[in-house]
């Protein structure tokens, strides 16, 4: 996994090279660190920016996955054609 440095010299893994799980885990860790209140302002800003980038990537990946699922559902629904030749029609039967 390739690592990149930001303007402050912090090293981060390339987001696009991360799995969804890895990106999600890193975002959770960032949120915990920011909520701890123990970071210096500069580090907080760096982590916040990283978190925003991770969140954008995760949202885009989810939207892509949802679109793929919808395409699969649409394909499945359109493939389900009722077979009207299997049963005799009762519309014209005189009882």
From TrEMBL:
GO terms for biological process: DNA catabolic process. Its main location: cytoplasm. GO terms for cellular component: cytosol; exodeoxyribonuclease VII complex. Its EC number is 3.1.11.6. Residues 20-75 form a coiled coil. Keywords: Coiled coil, Cytoplasm, Exonuclease, Hydrolase, Nuclease. GO terms for molecular function: exodeoxyribonuclease VII activity. Heterooligomer composed of large and small subunits. Bidirectionally degrades single-stranded DNA into large acid-insoluble oligonucleotides, which are then degraded further into small acid-soluble oligonucleotides. Belongs to the XseB family. This is Exodeoxyribonuclease 7 small subunit. It comes from Olsenella porci.
